[in-house]
């Protein structure tokens, strides 16, 4: 979680520079909508046709999750702007000697206290690691 201090848009990805108070990290949001939408539709068809070997309770849970995933996979070009507080979760990878975060989950934080609580949590975690 941090403040967006930089945005670079490319054809298949958007690079957000996020500053969490301890430093900046480049976070990459890939735009692979068609592949994701196709996979969601295939999984929904499998669940609805009865090809799935899931028990009924897990089947309804899976359908609910797919519905949420389908709703949240809209390309959001202008979702974030400079100064927004962004929460992102993903895998950190090294690229050309610098760490980058491949974003898997993200959202714009609307709670004004969330960033302060996050920074305090980072400090407490750092102190307990020593």
Summarize the structure.
InterPro entries: NA-bd_OB-fold. By secondary structure, this protein is α+β, with helices and mostly antiparallel strands.
Blueprint (SSEs and pairs):
Layout: E1 2-9, E2 13-19, E3 24-30, H1 33-49, H2 56-71, E4 85-95, E5 98-108, H3 114-129
Parallel strand pairs: 3-5
Antiparallel strand pairs: 1-2, 1-4, 2-3, 4-5
Helix pairs in contact: 1-2
InterPro entries: NA-bd_OB-fold
Protein name: OB domain-containing protein
Strand order of the largest sheet: 1-2-3-5-4
Measured between the Cα atoms of the first and last residue, the distance is 23 Å
| CATH architecture label of the largest domain | Beta Barrel
Class derived from helix and strand content: alpha+beta
Number-wise, the strands total 5
Radius of gyration: 18 Å
Q: What features would you describe in this structure?
A:
- It comes from Araneus ventricosus (Orbweaver spider).
- This is OB domain-containing protein.
- By secondary structure, the chain is α+β, with helices and mostly antiparallel strands.
- The chain contains three helices and five strands, in the order βββααββα.
- It has a five-stranded mixed β-barrel with strand order 1-2-3-5-4.
- Helix 1 (33-49) runs antiparallel to helix 2.
- The longest helix is centred in the N-terminal third of the chain and has 17 residues, at 33-49.
- The radius of gyration is 18 Å and the shape is globular.
């Amino acid at each position: 979680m941090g403040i967006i201090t930089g945005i670079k848009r490319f054809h298949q990805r958007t690079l957000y520079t996020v500053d969490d108070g301890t430093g900046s990290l480049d976070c990459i949001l890939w735009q692979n909508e068609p592949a994701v939408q196709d996979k969601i539709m295939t999984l929904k068809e499998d669940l609805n046709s009865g090809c799935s070997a899931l028990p009924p309770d897990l089947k309804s849970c899976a359908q609910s999750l797919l519905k949420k995933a389908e709703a949240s996979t809209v390309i959001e070009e202008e979702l974030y702007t400079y100064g927004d507080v962004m929460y992102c979760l993903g895998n950190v990878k090294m690229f050309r000697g610098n760490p980058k975060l491949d974003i898997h989950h993200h959202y714009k934080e609307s709670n004004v206290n969330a960033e302060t609580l996050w920074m305090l949590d980072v400090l407490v975690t750092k102190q307990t690691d020593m």
